[in-house]
Design goal:
The complex is a heterodimer of chains A (684) and B (247).
Chain A lengths: L12 E2 L19 E2 L16 H8 L5 H4 L3 E5 L3 H13 L2 E5 L17 E2 L11 H11 L6 H21 L24 E2 L5 H19 L2 E4 L2 E10 L5 E10 L5 E5 L2 E4 L20 H8 L4 E2 L4 E7 L22 E5 L17 E2 L1 H5 L9 H13 L7 E2 L2 E2 L2 E4 L1 H7 L1 H19 L8 E10 L2 E2 L12 E3 L17 H21 L12 H20 L5 H15 L6 H21 L11 H25 L23 H4 L1 E6 L8 E6 L9 E2 L3
Parallel strand pairs in A: 2-23, 3-4, 3-11, 4-7, 11-21
Antiparallel strand pairs in A: 1-24, 5-6, 8-9, 9-10, 12-20, 12-22, 13-19, 14-15, 14-18, 16-17, 18-19, 22-23
Helix pairs in contact in A: 3-6, 3-12, 4-5, 5-12, 10-11, 14-15, 14-16, 15-16
Chain B lengths: L2 E7 L8 E7 L8 H15 L21 E2 L2 E2 L20 E5 L8 E3 L2 E2 L2 H8 L21 H11 L6 H5 L6 H12 L8 H14 L10 H5 L7 H15 L3
Parallel strand pairs in B: 1-5
Antiparallel strand pairs in B: 1-2, 3-4, 3-5, 6-7
The chains are: A alpha+beta (684), B alpha+beta (247).
EC number (chain A): 1.3.5.1
Organism (chain A): Nocardioides gansuensis
Membrane topology (chain A): Peripheral membrane protein
């Protein structure tokens, strides 16, 4: 499940001056892209940061209630960001079409988030505030997010809790009947609202019910088991280019459908499945976002990936997905590997204390097992690369480290450990068949969330007019690293409280000139979808779609995962290009276009992952610094910690599609902080 | 492990299906049930036979998308979702019979995939609290006794997988409906619409072709989230009250 525990010890800073980088060292990717014009206008109002959102809302044009039903909105995705937007815009009286690939809107992967949702309610009177939540989020993102957006996120966070409580979301409560809060990791305030370990599920069901209410009211039409395969971007008679609809495939009948509207919203989630194995759901994909990218929407910071240290390791080559366990386990579990390689296959209980290497406690004596996610993840990788991993050998390597509760059980008693972690231990036992009360758990890092996504301005509008992007699908709020319990906050902030205002400003100029299915842009989009489907079904090669996906995942994990290097990334780009070429010539997709065909669905997704993977590597190659979840081996301190280079990389890398087989174009949006000071972190 | 799998194959909703037999070798006890089917599908694809269609998404037991009848039991022999069932629950040499959910209200779309849209339509008829975005009062203005909040949460964990319907000899969705009625009925926010909610949801339930409840209890035994049977008592109580109120 998706975890929400925050970075540990996030309040440690050093105030050292930012290091500088030799300008000759920042052109790693120079052969792989074309420099483009900088992005300057993000549409954020100027003035004091606390007033910007109020200003924007006031300046946004209004739409007369009687006109709203004449305006149509397409929303792709029904997770927190999509369902909340569909419900809210339906309530406002717009004509909404909502699409999801699952069999019901209620199944989107927001449902898997465990831990909680942050909000600056300050119910504990412990010094929390909008400004503090803003500050923690920018700092947690390693100063690579846009401050105006993050401030707004913190500002509307309190409204989210009000809305969800009114909907009947059963948040945890205290005996007095008021809402309970908890503190996550090293954050020093208690601002996280939760519904046991199923907060994502309860928030999503709340948004889903609000959505279904609008279906009954006739304002929203839902299209389940429909997959968006193309965006329609059309010029009107005055030459104004706008997103005007989508091409979708009915996944049951195979019918390719055209859906037209005045505006399109992508709330299609993240692309962690480019790594094949991740904690994402099986169907999570980049197709909606990538098709938009190819039509002109810039993709921002695609290399920013969050890798979570406490997942259940891979058990064999059959593995289809990874399962996350809450990071809170690191509060009481001790992480170790055998000191000697020959002990790795032994029963861990037979390895004496002096032959164990508690490597986090050894390397980071002050934080020990509670070092931040990226440090814990990389350290585990180094032990396994060194041949000291544990658990089953998969493809010749043991990829796992022990998370041992023996000391905690001895100190606190089994009952206390069970009360704290019982559900996680049960989940672990069900998946691995091992009893973690008796045998140390095995953990390994896994891809969990992506901070990168389509570039949006302050209004959440992409570089295609009329194409808005919300939730994990956009890039804006988490910088290079997302804090725990902030993904749910962002999805609902975008959908309930931000997009409905900013989209109104865009729609006030509508309804736009009618277009129909004979418009050249519609014909082109539809034809390209049909040709692609036809291609996959006629290649009749020898390899399954899954085999390509797995190979791509291995490349990404090896070279664009926890640690990235110039050589590795260049190698990965070559490997991906070769693999893509082979995929189009040798993939084997059976079945027909006019029926439910899961291999065909996957083929389209993998084709897009192949192109995205290459861009992620180029982005990672260009960013010769370490920040948040992005670690370049060439940019670290003497102690092996991430080293940012604010002088060279304090910008958003927004990539423009350069055309088939052409280099992408890099547009930079400089990050300017007026309300916060940039600092380097230290965990020693 | 070596297994004999008898699996329902049906090309589409309009056609007639049949059981097909497949032999599968090299199954690891550490595989999940769905990973076992993934391996079978890779085999079939290599042989030029169309893979078996089945639904799954999160594969961590929370989205509710997966669901198979395994040897006649909804989600198989353990109290969990199909995706969280592992092959160590079976023996080498076993014959496993795999079918889609059995219920008139869940028509088969293809192979093991069914249409559960009826659940969404039941929710549309009142499975919500009517509150528009932005009109909510301050969260702490609504106090909820802890036991009511806990009870609401316990039944709100329903994942809408449909195992209750598939397990029920009557094909009733009373447990699904009762869980939502109880979740919202326990909370002060849910009182204003309590009567109309139950009447409208039950009306839609019957219209969809789900059967009535005769207190057999197979639903709660099959429920991966262990929704208790007494939510159906709550449903009946609320329905009676609503009718007495003149609904």
């Amino acid at each position: 499940m998706t975890d929400s525990h925050s970075e540990f010890s996030s309040d440690v800073d050093s105030h050292a001056d930012a290091p500088t980088i030799d300008p000759d060292l920042i052109d790693d990717a120079v052969d792989y892209f074309i420099p483009g014009e900088p992005l300057v206008d993000t549409k954020a109002p100027s003035g004091p940061i606390a007033d910007r959102w109020s200003t924007r809302k006031f300046e946004a044009k209004l739409v007369n209630p009687a006109n709203r039903r004449k305006l149509s909105i397409i929303i792709v995705g029904t997770g927190l960001a999509g369902a909340s937007a569909a419900a809210t815009l339906g309530e406002a009286g717009y004509n909404v079409k909502s699409f999801c690939y699952q069999d019901s809107p209620r199944r989107a992967h927001s449902i898997a988030a465990q831990g909680g949702i942050n909000a600056a309610k300050n119910y504990k009177e412990d010094g929390d505030s909008v400004h503090r939540l803003f500050y923690d989020t920018v700092k947690g993102g390693d100063y690579r997010s846009r401050e105006s957006n993050v401030y707004r996120l913190a500002e509307v966070s309190t409204n989210i809790i009000d809305q969800c409580v009114a909907q009947g979301v059963p948040f945890a409560r205290e005996y007095g009947g008021l809402l309970d809060n908890r503190s996550f990791g090293g954050v020093q305030v208690s601002r996280t609202f939760y519904a046991r370990g199923q907060t994502g599920q309860q928030l999503l069901i709340g948004a889903y019910q609000a959505l279904e209410r609008q279906v009954a009211a006739g304002t929203v039409t839902t299209y389940a088991r429909h997959e968006m395969l193309e965006v329609i971007v059309a010029d009107d008679s005055s030459g104004q280019r706008r997103a005007r609809g989508i091409i979708a495939r009915d996944m049951v009948t195979g019918e390719v459908q055209t859906h037209l509207a005045d505006v399109v919203v992508l709330a299609s989630g993240g692309y962690g499945n480019v790594f094949y194995l991740s904690t994402n759901a099986m169907g999570c994909n980049v197709t909606a976002a990538w098709r938009a990218h190819r039509k002109g929407a810039y993709m921002a910071n695609p290399c920013y990936t969050q890798i979570h240290p406490t997942c259940i390791p891979v058990s064999g080559s059959h593995q289809s997905k990874l399962t996350l366990m809450s990071e809170s386990l690191r509060n009481d579990g001790r992480i170790w590997v055998p000191k000697r390689k020959e002990d790795c296959a032994k029963d861990p209980r037979e390895i004496p204390e002096e032959d164990r290497d508690y490597y986090l406690e050894r390397i980071y004596p002050s934080f020990g097992n509670l070092v931040p996610r990226d440090i814990a993840s990389r350290a585990a990788k180094y032990q396994c690369d060194d041949g000291r991993g544990v658990g089953p050998e998969v493809d010749g390597v043991r990829r796992g480290v022990y998370l041992d509760f023996a000391d905690a059980i001895a100190r606190l008693g089994r009952d206390a450990v069970e009360a704290k972690y019982g559900n996680l231990f049960d989940m672990y036992a069900r998946i691995t068949g091992e009893d973690p009360y008796e045998v140390p758990m095995r953990i390994y890092p896994a891809v969990h969330y992506v901070m990168g996504g389509l570039w949006v301005d302050y209004d959440l509008q992409s570089t295609i007019p009329g194409l808005f992007v919300t939730g994990e699908a956009n890039f804006s709020d988490h910088g290079a690293n997302r804090l725990g319990a902030s993904a749910l906050m962002q999805g609902l902030a975008d959908g309930y409280f931000v997009l409905p205002h900013t989209i109104r400003d865009y729609l006030a100029d509508g309804p736009f000139e009618k277009i129909d299915e004979s418009h050249p842009a519609v014909v082109e989009a539809r034809t390209s979808v049909e040709e692609r489907i036809n291609h996959f079904l006629t290649v009749n090669g020898t390899r399954s779609v899954d085999s390509y996906h797995r190979e791509l995942g291995n490349i990404m994990w090896e070279y664009c995962g926890m640690e990235r290097t110039e050589d590795g990334l260049k190698k990965a780009i070559d490997l991906i290009r070769t693999l893509k070429d082979d995929f189009y010539r040798n993939v084997k997709v059976l079945g027909t276009a006019d029926s439910l065909n899961q291999s065909l669905e996957k083929a389209g997704r993998v084709a897009d992952f192949l192109e995205l993977g290459e861009l992620m590597c180029i982005d990672a190659l260009n960013r010769r610094e370490s920040c948040g979840g992005h670690f370049r081996a060439e940019s670290q301190t003497e102690d092996g910690e991430a080293l940012r280079h604010d002088d060279a990389f304090a910008y958003v890398a927004a990539w423009e599609w350069g055309g088939e087989g052409e280099k992408p174009i890099l547009h930079k949006e400089d990050l300017v902080y007026t309300a916060i000071e940039m600092k380097q972190r230290s965990y020693k | 492990m070596k297994l004999t799998l008898k699996i329902w194959r049906q090309p589409n909703a309009a056609s007639t299906g049949a059981m097909h037999t497949y032999e599968l070798d090299g199954v690891s006890p550490d595989m999940s049930f769905l990973e076992m089917l993934d391996v079978l599908n890779e085999d079939l694809n290599a042989k030029g036979e169309e893979p078996i269609a089945f639904d799954s998404d999160c594969r961590e037991g929370i989205c509710g998308m997966c669901g198979l009848m395994i040897n006649g039991q909804a989600h198989g022999p353990e109290v969990t979702t199909t995706c969280q069932l592992h092959m160590r629950s079976f023996e080498d040499g076993d014959e496993i019979v795999i079918e889609p959910w059995r219920a008139d209200a869940f028509p088969v779309l293809k192979d093991l995939c069914v249409d559960r849209g009826a659940f969404d339509r039941i929710i549309q008829q009142g499975g919500y609290i009517s509150v528009n975005t932005g009109s909510a009062p301050e969260a702490h203005s609504i106090q909820v006794p802890k036991d009511a909040a806990d009870r609401a949460f316990d039944v709100a964990t329903c994942i809408g997988c449909g195992a209750c319907v598939a397990a029920c000899p009557n094909g009733s969705a009373s447990l699904f409906m009762g869980a939502k009625i109880t979740h919202l009925g326990e909370l002060p926010q849910g009182q204003a619409e309590r009567d109309s909610r139950v009447v409208n949801m039950v009306g839609q339930h019957d219209h969809e072709g789900f059967g009535g409840c005769t207190n057999i209890g197979e639903c709660t035994a099959a429920c991966p989230k262990e929704i208790p049977l007494d939510v159906i008592s709550q449903l009946n109580r609320d329905l009676r009250t609503a009718l007495r109120h003149g609904h």
